[in-house]
Amino acid sequence: MTAVKEATLHQRILSDIEGSIVSGDWPPGHRIPFEVDLAEHYDCSRMTVNKVLTQLAKAGLIERRKRSGSFVTQPQAQSAVLEIHDIKAEVLSLNLTYSYGLIRCSKRKRRADDLRRLEVPTAASVLEIVCIHHAGRKPFCLEQRLISLAAVPEAAEVDFSRVAPGQWLINQVPWSTAEHMIRAMPASADDAEALEIASGTACLVIERRTWSGAGPITHVRLIYPGDRHALVARFAPEQSRPSN
């Protein structure tokens, strides 16, 4: 086999396997065909296949287990604790296809049980949005959001079946202060159904409130299955104060 042909086959096999993983056709846990079977299918040497699988393992797309074979890994997103991040960017960073679906969106008056989430007057109107973000063919994050229509009246006219509320707010509404609360909790029956996991499954929950000079903007609760997300904080030692 010439070097050019081997390089072309290497890229073809890599693209085929990567495409099956990214599209969700081969979900996490799926066993990749054995080297000997791939070599026969592509009419190439096992060495060529081995190089492809090694490259995919280094990229974190598959896991190679001795005497068991190679398996599609469960990707785990990482987000910075103190950043307001875009969920679509998180998914794309995992080399997975992103999709979004609106579950419900309704305008209503602020209820008493909303007060902890969004400190607006009782008579104030809010927009309540529940939506789901997918990575490949699997639910990645359930988003539950309240938007203050006093602070962002134009949100009432937005078609959130076409654009995710977080993405729209980041692009359209300046904010001055944000607060994060992070906790672990079991998935409720409704949340588990939306995320396609068992009720009671451990989830990572990020709650965030943001404000502008005009007051509270939004509260969002982001619910991730616990094995699919990690939070990262990077910091440095406090600089020593100069002596007087």
Report on this structure.
This protein has 244 residues and is of the alpha+beta class. The chain has two domains: 3-72, Winged helix-like DNA-binding domain superfamily/Winged helix DNA-binding domain (Arc Repressor Mutant, subunit A, Orthogonal Bundle); 77-232, 3-Layer(aba) Sandwich (Chorismate lyase), CATH 3.40.1410. It has six helices and eleven strands. It has a six-stranded antiparallel beta sheet. Strands 1-3-2 form a three-stranded antiparallel beta sheet, with helices on one face. Mean pLDDT is 85; it is low at 239-244.
Salient structural properties:
244 residues; Arc Repressor Mutant, subunit A; 2 domains; elongated; 26% helix; alpha+beta; single chain; 6-stranded antiparallel sheet; Chorismate lyase; 11 strands
Report helical residue fraction: 25-40%
Order of helices and strands: HEHHEEEHEEEHEHEEE
What is the CATH architecture annotation of the largest domain? 3-Layer(aba) Sandwich
**Numbering strands along the chain, what is their spatial order in the largest sheet?**
5-6-7-10-9-8
Number of helices: 6
Structural class by helix and strand composition: alpha+beta
Strand content: 25-35%
CATH superfamily of the largest domain: Chorismate lyase-like
